[in-house]
Each structure stands twice: as C-alpha cells, then as structure tokens.
Recover the amino acids of this structure.
C-alpha cells in the first residue's frame, strides 16, 4: 500500500509528450527614511511589472528561456523549444547525442529500445530505466527506481495535470545552465500534511512515515533536447546528480 501511494505521488507528466529587541530603538533621520520609502516603492513597481510580464507566455519565454502555458483542459504545458520558431539553421542535437554519466550504486542501466516495439508511437525519444539490483522484480515491486525520458524538444512538451499542481509542486532552477523544474516529493508531502490534519491522519493510519518518502521529478532541457528524470525511493539530491550527468 505504501509503495502504491508513493508511486502515485510521482510524476503527472504525459510521456508524450520554501524576537524583538528590548533596547531603545535608534532614531533614523527623516531624510534616510524618505530614501528607504522611495526604494521600497521602486522595488514594488519592479516586482509588479515583472509579475505582469510573467503572465504572458511569450514574455516569460524571453525571460526564462522556456515556454509555459495553461490549457483549457486543466494542463500546464512546459516546452523548451519556441513553438513559433521555424529557424533550424544550426545543426540541432538529437536524443541520440544524450548520455547518462552517473548511475548510483546498486542500480543497473536498462534502455528501452522503441525500434523493437511496433506500438511505440514516439519518434526521437528514448527511455532509460535505472533498476534496483537488489529487487526480485525491479519493474513491479522494487523499493526504488529511476526513469529517464529523453525527448526531442521540437516534437514534444511536458504536460502536468492538474494545472495548479505545477506551481504547487515544481520549483524553478537550472541544470547545467539550462532551465529546469524540480519536484521534491518529501518536501511537498511534509508541507501538505502540515496544512491538512485529515490527510496527516490518513497517512498515519496507512502506516506511512514521511521519512520513508523520497523521490520526485526533474524537468530540464534546451531547444533541442528535453529530459525528465523521475524516481521513487531515492533522494532528490541523487536525482539531481543523475540529471546533471545527462549531457548532449
């Protein structure tokens, strides 16, 4: 039961795709207070303008280098290639240029070969599993596992459902200088249970210890390649190390 709950918590991406002082306060000259007030107002204006700009997907892309928008069917779409750009003058990297340089101890690499599966629909994509060597059945009942999906940014985007889950779960950052978003499952559930007593009681009834919840998801890429690294039963630091080792 515990593993099922933990696994359901991971992902959400369509594969296609954080004292007062007792001393007498020091009086500040009025001139200094005026300067501070102007600085605060200026900062507020900058933050407001930035906030308004970020509402526009195209401006957001220019600022962050990644395109994000919400769809009518309650999805957040994350795309690393400009959907309106037709410039392919430079020789693009492909998913087959990508390599995984770090595999944690106790895992073995197994790459799924789409060429052997006539039902596999996704061109220019790769699936790499890091399997728990100690598990009797690493695909079904393993205590930990990692899935690495590598896609062409020109053909695919990440889709997160529901849409509000993206802002709640994913934190913007960078991986090797590229735009990235990280979902830390442990931190997310610690916060969620702190805010929801009923949910906390349910987890206690199921015998789920928050210290046992590890894993999450990382999305990153550039205009050529998009990568998602998902894992359960493994620390977010290890997932970041794996993601940072994927180069092309």
């Amino acid at each position: 039961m515990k593993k099922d709950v933990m696994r359901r918590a991971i992902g959400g991406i369509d594969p296609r795709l954080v004292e007062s002082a007792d001393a007498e306060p020091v009086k500040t000259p009025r001139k200094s207070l005026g300067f501070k007030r102007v600085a605060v107002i200026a900062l507020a204006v900058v933050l407001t303008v930035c906030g308004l700009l970020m509402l526009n997907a195209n401006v957001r892309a220019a600022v962050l280098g990644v395109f994000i928008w919400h769809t009518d069917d309650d999805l957040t779409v994350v795309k690393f290639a400009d959907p309106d750009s037709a410039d392919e003058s430079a020789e693009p990297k492909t998913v087959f240029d990508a390599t995984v340089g770090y595999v944690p101890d106790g895992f073995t690499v197994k790459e799924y070969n789409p060429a052997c599966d006539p039902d596999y629909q996704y061109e220019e994509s790769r699936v790499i599993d890091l399997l728990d060597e100690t598990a009797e059945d690493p695909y079904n009942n393993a205590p930990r596992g990692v899935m690495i999906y590598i896609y062409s940014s020109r053909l695919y985007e990440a889709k997160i459902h529901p849409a509000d889950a993206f802002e709640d779960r994913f934190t913007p950052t960078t991986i090797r200088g590229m735009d990235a978003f990280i979902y830390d499952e442990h931190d997310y559930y610690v916060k969620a249970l702190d805010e929801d007593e009923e949910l906390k009681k349910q987890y206690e009834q199921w015998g789920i210890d928050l210290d046992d919840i590890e894993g999450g998801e990382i999305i990153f890429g550039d205009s050529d390649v998009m990568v998602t690294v998902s894992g359960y039963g493994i620390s977010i630091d290890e997932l970041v190390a794996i993601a940072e080792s994927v180069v092309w």
Q: What stands out?
A: Helices lie at 2-9, 30-53, 57-64, 164-169, 185-195, 197-205, 236-244.
